[in-house]
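Hey, I'm writing a tutorial for new members on how sequence and structure tokens pair up, and I'd like a real worked example in the thread rather than a made-up one. If someone can provide the structure for the chain below, I'll link this post from the tutorial.
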Amino acid sequence: MRRPVAWIALVVVAGGTLAACADPADQDPCVSYAALTATVDDLRELAQTEGGSASVAAKAVAAKAQLNQLEALSEDRLDAAASRLRTAVDDLQLAAGSEAQDPAAPLVSAAVDDVRDAFAALAESLDTQCTTG
């Protein structure tokens, strides 16, 4: 009877050990920050050139996913700045969707500016911790 319990314990310990062996880059907030930086830059450029295209929506979803990962790795130190950026990306996504015919429309332009400003606030917190480039 002890044998199955021993195997279960071995599987649990081995599973925990394998989880700890994940790629260190996946656990580095600076790697996540660099990826988010590139995605936000792409999002702003797409919004300005393509307006309400599906690529803007897809890039917004990617930016929010990367922001979630960065926020999780930062151990709640970036909550306010991350929340502000998430809201700005949501607003840009909505503006781009509502003004699909004109990428230079005022709502899209204002939303791009908000994303830029919100990202700058987040970057201020991370630039001292991470080197980008």
